[in-house]
Amino acid sequence: MQNKIAELKHKAELFNQLRLDRALSLMDDNGRKVTAILPLLLHCNHPNLPVYLDGAVPTGICLFTPDEQQQDYLTSLNVALDDDKCVTCSPIYSLYAMGSTGSIGQNWRSDLDIWVCHDPVMSDEDAQLLEQKCTLITAWAETFNVEVNFFLIAEDKFRKVNNAVMTKESCGSAQHFLLLDEFYRSALRIAGKPSLWHILPVEFDNNYDGYVDELVAAGVIDREDWVDLGGFPCIPAEEYFGSALWQLYKGIDSPYKAVLKTLLMEAYSAEYPNNRLLSQIMKENFQLASSQQLDLSHDTYYQILIKVTAYLEKIGDHARVDLLRRCFYLKMFSGNCAAEKLARPEWHRTSVAEVISEWNWHPDRIAHLDNRDNWKIEQVQEAHPELLDAMMKGYRNLIGFARRNNISESINPADIGILSRKLYAAFESLPGKVTYINPQISPDLSEPQLSFVQVPNGRFNNAGWYLYNSSLDPMQIVGRKPLEHNGYLSKLVAWSYFNGLMVDNTQVDIFNQDSDMNSDVLNSFCKDLKNKFPIRATLASNQALSRPCEIRDLSIFLNLEYDPTNHWGGRIIEFDTNTSDVFSFGDCKACLVGSIDLIYRNSWNEVRTLHFSGEERIVDALTTIMGKMHQDATEPDSIKVFCYSLHFRGLIRHSFERLVRDCISTRLQRDKDQIVKIITISDDRFGIYFERRGVSIRKLENSLDLYNHISERKLQKMPLRIDKTTTAAGTPLAVESHSSEGLVQFFFENYKNGFNVYIVDEANRVETYQHLSGNKDELIKGVHRFYTNSQEESRNEGAFANFNLPQFYDIVYSENKELKVIPYVSTK
């Protein structure tokens, strides 16, 4: 056995070097430079190196000795290494690249995902210092346009309960053994100890730890010579739900790769419980290979293609087989496929030709895919829904798998909440929401011309506005299919801007048939929108996603489509200082606000649009804005009002902004029972009632109406105040302050022998369940199963998944003994 292990170790080193050479051959000069220097930056911490962190940072990679190129680099910087830094007891065991690196799926834009395998007894303080050092290296690599992501992996990570923290790149508790499977099938050693799992015979995988103990006891292997992350005979079925959520999240920015990964999870679940994992298949291929040359049987991405294709053909899903192949083809290239093919090394060109020869593709199809860098909105609108449908179908199939097997998820409730919010913000299609349709499908959707055409009521086509990527010239626009349609203009303009169609040099035209809009107003609106909102904003933090969404940047556009002052031609408008209220202007008491358009970005990074032009447009707009703010929300970072009136533009803008700011300030005011604000609009008076759980507006027919309504609401909702932290109905004020429309929220109030649960529905109605006992984690899993299963039962095959899952919170006492609400954290 000792000879066999020595033989496999030598073979593994040979194959690893061949794969490393392939990985470097697919990088540009900057990528190769970063890959070469990277181990040096973790092996030592020296002020002459480009990355240095003051302090006792853990340094030293086991068994690492710089090669000639690396040594020349150190010498040029006058850096000398300690002689004892190559021993087996250094704190950093190994550096491994994982994912597509070194495979046929690697392209010029591929990032480097580096696992820093380290001593499991490393202290938390040392691990934090090492993580800070890795963060600095990531920033340094960015200066070369190379993306490097580091993941600190303790050697015993996969032998313990998974309590990892989720970040933009780290899956947290969403994946555990599935993550180890991906590592083992794709691991490429950059420096340090070799992996023990890869060289132990496949037949012993079911008793991996026991077999390792036997080899150590017999003196066949020395643990100090290897990095050993452990074995696993199969993937626990509980992981599939969290993994599906994680792969969908990654699909927000990398849809082609996400389709491959989601389909792989579906193929795995179809084999349960007799799984043949890709890591096991590739380990077997490696150990049984008679040749010392790499072929596609050792390529991780090609093996994904083979396994998923076999699964889809078995169930007769030929449409997704075709999509799978296109996603695989586009994953191999970063954009201009034709140009990349010519620059690729011989091994890659040969492998690609071998793969696509099996598909019998027509040259026109290859030419279309090769031209992806030049795809415009029409091609993206065709590709985007197909990618989404494929991912959602895979997600629904995994939900069905979990339901059929009565499986609960292993992902913790906090991570479910964060991931579902990210997916809700990215994928959920809602009226007024601007959907991003180009997640790295094409690099440039800009259009030289855009035209907005209005169709009034009573015509053959639906009333509203239509967007075309052409001029208004009949020779261009007649017979052309519109890109988008909406009932109001601001949604179309926002959609074209945030999706990159409208840029600085885009010419915009308008054909108006039933509004006060004109070309000058349209151009002013486009300019204001561009100046106010960047296309991309800072990613929503996990903390923001664990709380109800709040308005962050609010812009209000007045009289964009309908301007009452535009119809004053030839009329004499009499007014004085007593009748200059823009909401009840002049002797005729006219409201000078004809239409209101809202565009805002919230704390989940969604962009929403709303339009109000009915008789109670001001009331409706105020109610909507207030409804987006729970009692304990923070004030928006910015509030900006724009006005496009022909007359009194400044007066209207300032008056409306003052009203909105006053209402927002009142809504967010603490320690109030009820405040009423009276506004007059034309001949009508309205009462705005501010209460902890929400805001309501009621038309007041006479002076007694105000007091009757206040008394009526007091009798209905607050007849008695018990104490400062609880309402008469027994609902803690912290719950009412934190409730948010449109969400289902569970609040746990804990006491010594149990807990109370307050459930707030989408309409802010509260149900209370008191004196409960048992495991809250199991209760939450049951709630998740109910929601996902009920969604699955109520949706047909082609329907979209709903990620508006419930949110869970704990009610706790702060340091000053006040009740506050925090995101629920599992007790595991």
Description:
The protein is 40% helix and 16% strand. By secondary structure, the chain is of the alpha+beta class. The model is unreliable at 711-728 (pLDDT under 50). The chain has a 5-stranded mixed beta sheet with strand order 18-17-16-19-20. A 4-stranded mixed beta sheet has the order 3-2-1-4, sandwiched between helices. The chain contains 25 helices and 20 strands. It is globular. The chain folds into 5 domains: 1-232, no CATH class; 234-439, no CATH class; 449-532, no CATH class; 542-717, no CATH class; 733-823, no CATH class. Helix 7 runs parallel beside helix 16 and helix 8 crosses helix 10.
Lay out the secondary structure.
Elements: H1 2-25, H2 29-43, H3 68-76, E1 92-98, E2 112-118, H4 124-142, E3 148-154, H5 177-186, E4 188-192, H6 208-217, H7 239-250, H8 255-271, H9 278-288, H10 300-314, H11 318-331, H12 337-343, H13 346-357, H14 363-370, H15 377-404, H16 413-427, E5 449-455, E6 464-468, H17 474-477, E7 484-486, H18 489-498, E8 507-511, H19 519-532, H20 542-545, E9 551-558, E10 596-602, E11 607-612, H21 617-627, E12 638-643, H22 649-667, E13 674-681, E14 684-691, E15 694-700, H23 703-717, H24 733-738, E16 745-751, E17 754-760, E18 766-772, H25 776-794, E19 807-813, E20 819-823
